[in-house]
Hints:
Residues 51-102 are annotated as: Disordered. Homotetramer. By secondary structure, this protein is mainly alpha-helical. The chain is 47% helix and 6% strand. A hairpin with a 2-residue loop joins strand 10 and strand 11. Helix 5 (153-167) crosses helix 6. It starts with a strand and ends in a 9-residue tail after the last helix.
Amino acid sequence: MYYPASIVAHGRSYQIEGRASLVPFLGGLLEYFIELTAMMRRLSTVFKTKDKENTKSSPTTAENGATSSSPTGRRLTMGVSKKSNSGAASSNPQAFDGPDHSVKRAGIVGTLESLGKVISTANRPLNTETGDGSYDTKQEQTGLLDDLKSLRIKDLETLQLTMKQELGTSKLTDDKSMLMERLIQLVANLPGTSKTRVKLTEVLVDELWGSLEHPPASMLGDKYNYRQADGSYNNIRFPDIGKAGTAYARSVTPKIVQPNPKPDPGLIFDTIMSRENGGFKPHPNNVSSMLYYIASIIIHDCFRTSHEDFNVSMTSSYLDLSPLYGSNQDEQNNMRTLKDGELKPDCFSEKRLLGFPPGVGCILIMFNRFHNYVVKQLATINENGRFTPPKDNLPEDKKQAAWKKYDNDLFQTGRLITCGLYINIILLDYLRTIVGLNRVNSTWTLDPRIEMERNSKPGTVAGVGNQCAAEFNLVYRWHSCISQRDEKWSEDLYMKIFGKSHKEVSMQELLIGLGKLEAMTPDDPLQRDFAGMKRGSDGKLSDDDLVKELTASIEDLAGSSGANNVPAVLRAVEILGMEQARAWKCATLNEFRKHFGLIPHEKFSDINSDPAVYEKLKVIYDDPDLVELYAGLVCEDAKKPMDPGVGIGPTYTISRSILSDAVTLVRGDRFYTTDYHAANLTNWGITEVDYDLNVNQGCVFYKLFIRAFPNHFSFNSIYAHYPLTIPTENKKIMEKLGRVDDYSWEKPTRIPERKNVVTYDGVKSVLTNGEVFGVDNWRRGLAFLMGKPGANFMLAGDGEFFAERRNQMKECLYQDKWQESVKNYYESIVPKLLKRWSYNIGGTTNQVDVIRDIDNSAHVYFASNIFHLPLKSEENPKGVYTEHELYMVLAVIFIVIFFGDVDPAKTFSLRAAGLPVTQDLGQLVEQNVNFISKTSLVSGIVDNFMQENNALKDYGVHMVRHLLKAGLGVHETVWSQILPTAGAMVANQAQVFGQVLDYYLGDGKEHLPEINRLAKLNTPEADDILLHYLLEGIRMNGTFGAYRTCHQNITINDGSRKVECKPGDSVFTSFVSLAQDPKIYPEPKKVRLDRPIDSYLVYGVGPHACLGGDASRVALTAMLKCIGRLDNLRRAPGPQGEMKKIPREGGFYVYMDKMMGSEFPFPTTMKICWDGGLNEPEAVGDKGKGKKMGL
């Protein structure tokens, strides 16, 4: 908590923003220091006068450092004497050096003082005020003047450091300054009778107490880490706050005496609410019905009035997705499969929402699917063994209990994560649209979870619970905004239930009919009918049906807030609402407004400026102060759209109150504030649902859509990214913001499933037929990142043009003696990286992250050398990127170009991040190439200056000159040749070697001794055998494939299968299965070193086979040689020695990052250990010919 520390000096008051830790203590000391300084100044003036009167007085110093009774001595020494040249203490620099009698004098003074005390005590009169005649022994407290005696020079330094800390900008204390300890010394040195010592001790105790919560807001254990089904224990100290089955709160006291009887509710509806008074009014900002479906979920999340007692809500007062999960343990159990943490598929708990337009249920079904996706991921990732299945050898009773806990841990953690996405959708999509932030390029949002240590009012605390108020049950009834489509749906529902028009259904018939309907609805959510949709054998509803309903809902224009726009079909519902509000004895509209700091309506025309409305209000209510809350909320004027500020145009009072309620609901919820962290949600979970302000200004609704329907919504579908505004309006908004090209504007349709080709012959038939199977995806990715020149890259298409581009690059890559240059470079760079990044962990054992620091970095250095990339290194200290930064940029380039939308939920954010970093890198490379192009006339001198002294000195600048000779120009050379090639080679080659090493450290570890022996031989024959080990490692553990787009109808013979393809189909050729084909690779499970090199398809085949395949084999063999010769090579102990990977369809994997927070297509980390040195052969050290091989 932050406290203001007041500083008072010379009659002026200064407020300094307080900080946690020692701030009040520092503030108290600061006041003390200023007061002390002022006193010293006053004393200084007095002492100067006395010095003139008595120049012969000499100071003495007491044994404890305090000065003698001489005022001059006190002023000059502050307890510390000045030193003469000989080191003796002297208060007068002009005094002669004589014997020091100060100690003897101090003893005499002390004796005299003690004698004086004895005489004073003896002269006291007898005490008659106490029963036993004892004297009052209380010591009188002393002030600053006495404190001065105890101060030392280092105490003044402490006060100076205190002032620096107090006035500084950092709210944190550097504990290495020992400030707290020095303050303790200062206080401890003050006299026992010091008032200041008592005051500062009190402040210190208060601050140390305040550093911890009392009582704690968070506790350990499943009871507190997980949401309870009924919402209890959100506030640990008061567990029933917000619990389902407790009473509504009252927000506003009804002080005005209201008339009795009140106006007839039916009359109120018919005169100022009904849509029949003027017809449907469309939403002025073209908001979609989807926004109001979210609002419906929110209100049913927080309000479920008991039929037996209108004062009680049967759901919790928290945004905990109870419409999906249930509001008590029985309802929750009905939703669960009670196996692997999953929910029953495509259903939800809340029966009431079956009576709402299907779009509401579709949203809950998406959350259902997201939950089940999450728990599968949690079990697969199994962070720190948190979700390890029980062992089979347990006793039966313990086994059942263990499986029950396994299921519950997955379910409860999955719920926390799913609710995390839910609340982010509410804050970043729903709330931003409410205030119009979706219509501007601003990343600001009203997020109540913000840390508010500074400038916050006392009481703006977090995680203290919430109790929903009855008034807000009325605030959220936005029936005026029901669309014409949903109005028709409601009318049809009446006909279905009652067999007649809503106008013919009486109130009693309505209540009886609704009661029967609820009783007939099965308790098992999976058995309930949903919008007439049919379930498959797996219990799931048709994706096509659900997406069709969602698409129509997104395109559906909502109604406008305000008077006379509620559908007549809801007349009975509104009457019941008004009667309920009267039963709650709610305050009036004006009382409610004043509670929120709004001026009350003085005239009826202030409520609604339309005479047709305010005249009727006048007749009904007589006085503006008597207008009831619900009627007033509905019939007020609606706010006019304002960008930003007013997005959905609610009525005035609702506009203000809903923002307060949103802040309260979120900030009061412990599971969204104090307990919303990775320890509860897991690193992966909290990352999965997090928002990125660089993507859609933080909007996250698209994550829900794409996870639920990956085969319908493209990664950039406007329907998924901005579903709360109708698409035609979204297009106008994005055109104005300059972002229209970021999105697809097509209606969602089923995306044809990709066609997988997995056999040797099938793969070759696809990859060698560029006329039928094109690289359309690659071309789109290249054009997105590199612009128009990117579409001219050699891998962007087929035909003579692209073949010529390929030949140009081939001539540059494969220069004379290229094999020797590549081999020598890698045999030099790997040992240097090992020396730089490895560390000794005891004895002769060394350790290094071989993926991050060796594998990835080696390829970055190689690419930087041959393409003159701006890498910061020893030889290029003015470079821009570290090797790890440059690796990530090049990896992102590869992913965007070659992986496309393999994971559609991540593709949009990846492209959003990839484009600017690619452009930044390209511009820097373009500057380098431009400089090289302008120095062609003096190329010999410049190249000698720019080339690096390593095995690639014949590449680098020379290669750039070779590319420029093709006549493409600087811009074209960079964006169509250099940058795409660099992006295509680094991450891919690093992945290959990482997988090889992972194999030989795991299933193939029996081969390590032979690899070690061969690596130490350092002969061409041994290197050739190592090449075969490399290729076998790739075959055994490599996960490679390539996408193509079919351009015409064709049948692929894929072994015994016939794969039918039509234009537009995505075809994926997998190398994983064919690598185990016994027809091509006899004894496929064994490492054999006699297989023909040309039998391996690891570098592809056809016109788009990896151009650098030959160089890659040389490079990776050299790397295997350098790593393989390390003695006793092994994985590092524990999980750090494993390459954490998540299995995917077809034998593929994705990899987890170091924090286990997100997936990545390439390996990110794996540590290895070995004993002794690097075992470098002598010949390697001679290759540099004495020149330094810098990184």
